[in-house]
Amino acid sequence: MPSADRLAKLFLIPLGAFVLAFFLLPMVRLVAVAGSGPNGLAEYLVLITNPRHFGTLIATLLLSATATLATLAIGVVVALFLGRNRFPGQKALIAMLTLPLAFPGVVVGFMIILLAGRQGLIGSISQSLGMGRMVFAYSMAGLFAGYVYFSLPRVMVTLLAAVEKLDPSLEEAARSLGASRAQVLRDVILPGIGPSLMASGAIAFATAMGAFGTAFTLATRIDVLAMTIYTEFTLSANFASAAALSIALGLITWGVLALTRNFAGDRVAAAG
Description:
The chain has 272 residues and is mainly alpha-helical. It has a single domain, classed as MetI-like (MetI-like fold, Orthogonal Bundle), CATH 1.10.3720. The protein has 13 helices and no strands. α1 (2-34) packs across α13 (239-271), α3 (51-84) packs antiparallel against α10 and α7 (140-165) packs antiparallel against α10 (194-210). The longest helix is centred in the first third of the chain and has 34 residues, at 51-84.
């Protein structure tokens, strides 16, 4: 045991170095830069006091929330189908559905442009049907589609693992008692995958809040928080404002992840 304790303490050295180099020092520097501007510590309130930044925050929150809800809804359906059915080519289908995991955000944005851009496939089809050319790649709808496409594989993999661990006898018992499919879904399946649902939803929300590559490709006429931070320190050279916005973005996403982790832990403990 003493040797094991010494080994554990020895591992604290690289852990401490990692935390110091990749978390503490960058955060301390970010906080210092945010307070070094002409507004001083009031720069931390720029997200609320600046109407443009506040509007960008609200738009980013709404977009991230709706994209997360849509991703969860699609992910539950796909996970239930793949987890409860066996058919030829299933593994190949799952591999294909997880392919977007290998794509950076810029590639996802490019694919949305190919589908719904000015020369996109959807626009060509709608024009051939006499409905005019539909172009929505450079709007909130385009960002929404990109965020859902980007987050869906992550959510699907997590939920698929949770569905496969569910006990089918619970659903059979509920049906034998006269429960409908909707009641089984509401009272058995969703509570059973609840912790995984919340965890994957929190990750999808945090990913959407901080997504830059897709926003950089598509957000030509709209503002999201990641793009606002980018323009503040590149085009405006306003490092203090960019740092303050970055801290605010980090605190929001960290808060959502922390709350979800605690709530999911309470759900697991209650279920046990």
